[in-house]
Amino acid sequence: MAILMKGNEAIAEAAIQAGCRLFCGYPITPSTEIPEYMAKKMKKAGGTYLQAESEVAAIYMVYGAGAAGARVMSGTSSPGFSLMQEGLSYLFAAEIPCVIADVMRGGPGLGGLGPTQADYFQLTKGGGHGDYHPIVLAPATVQEMIDLTKEAFDLADIYRNPVILAVDGILGQMMEPVEFPGKYEAKVLPAKTWAADGCEGRPKNNVISYYLSSEAGEADNLRWGKKMAQMQAAEQRFAELSLDDAEYAFVAFGTSSRITETAIDMLRSEGVKVGLFRPISLWPFPADGLLKRVPQIKGWMSIELSAGQMVQDVRLVVNGRAPVGFYGRQGGMTPEPEEIVAAFKTQILKGGVRG
Amino acid sequence: MKTVFAKTTGLTDRVFHYCPGCTHGIIHRLIGEILEEMEIIGQTVGVAPVGCAGFCENYFACDIIGAAHGRAVAAATGAKRARPDRIVFTYQGDGDGASIGLAETISAAARGEKLTSIFVNNAIYGMTGGQMAPTTLLGMKTATSPYGRDESMGYPLDLPKLLAQVKGAAYVASVSVDSPQAVREAKKALKKAFQVQVDGLGYSFVSILSTCPTNWGVTPVEALEWVRDKMKPYFTLGELKVPTVEGGGKE
Fold first, then answer.
1. Predicted ipTM of the assembly
2. Rounded CA Rg of chain A
3. Structural domains of chain A ordered from first start
4. Which residues of A touch chain B, with CB atoms under 8 Å apart?
5. What is the pLDDT of residue B251?
């Protein structure tokens, strides 16, 4: 039976259903319904809602709990996500599974409370120091927020890697009918034999992120590189809409993909054969799926709530074989479908942009 | 032949990397002995800092989580909240606990986190080569206070005194390891701190005045004298807070 639920609450409920019993966070708009829901429901689920003194502390509480083997998560919004970047770098290096939701708002700086997707670079290029990427999943509906939250915990455990849910402020705040348990199917997960949770009956475990020699440092980095290559091979996710006969394609994720769907309807009603390629995993970027469409597509256009960040990844894949345009709004504003149609006509149909 | 001393099973067989005359080794031994005596090696998770003790996972026989600089108490909080049945301690220097991690230290105390922090104060940043610390004494020359710390650089922070004011801190002690008697008293304080955690009374914190002969530029013996002559008069010593029956603690 479908129930009506807010996106942020759906993430929190899905996390509890996925077995998360510890949430460590610091309230920040527009993600506050996540900690509020956790504060209300965790106790009943036998878990703990822990309010940290800052996002810096929150991410290291996640670090400590994850290192001790717990299913743990935090949720925040862009400025708080910035504060967590050091911790994400450490989480990656210490190979600690966890899930973090970033409900993106306007920036840079304190920015505004409106929705953006302007954390894309920070999310996908390794926002902290060193060579690393977390897996980043970008749902486009509240139902998908549920399904991907559950999956995120499993991916974190499988790869021993932080997994980020990239959500814009609209998805976090909007209500939609959803169903639990959703499409999620439980996976067989590796035992956490590495966890630092007391060494009784086994050799001691250390969960650390540093090395004493540069040779060991390089060996670690090469090993992580292999792990990231495995993720890139196995975890690219995307959805396609109206692409089979398409001559042109939009690329968009999250809320901007939904606005773009309306723009596609409008263009199709004018006879323009255009479709949508929607990345669900922002990292790994679904390059293989997009590449398959490159031969048939005469012009691409990335639609984002930013100054144009994902468009760089699209251009890397298209690699000059067709023009790649961009249209976006910033600072918490969202485009009308008419704006997207107009930008598409100017940049792609009239050849205003070169790849 | 009668055994009069044996290395504790709370420590591994790895040889310490610490400099001659550094008191980290004594403090490590005391903690190892306490873990052994309380029979909690297998139930304990230690959290390592960044600094000279950042490699202590090599020495303690229990599981260790390596934290970022200043974040040991936050990581320990997460571990303890995830596994309340475990004994969790942090081992931190003065830069880690009183400067970059000050918010974490005080906030964990305020929440009454049921974990133990061991705060090793040698008045200097040892690992990075002897720069000014939050605990560097006035007039003290360091790599970043080459003419001596003056008042424009602020005053050394007496962290245990500050923490004793915080309600959630159940046990706060400030000790030293500059003499055999002081070492015995330090061990008593450390053991109480772990017991307060076992009893679930709240946050326990033990500050230990320590040495850094290498970066102070003195001999090991002179370093111990310096602790006695310079550090002990400035930093408040003794049990600054002991638990009440119902927990929380009182001064």
1. 0.96
2. 20
3. 3-234 (3.40.50.970), 239-349 (3.40.50.920)
4. 22, 24, 48, 50, 52-54, 56-58, 60-70, 72, 86-87, 90, 94, 196-201, 204-210, 212
5. 47
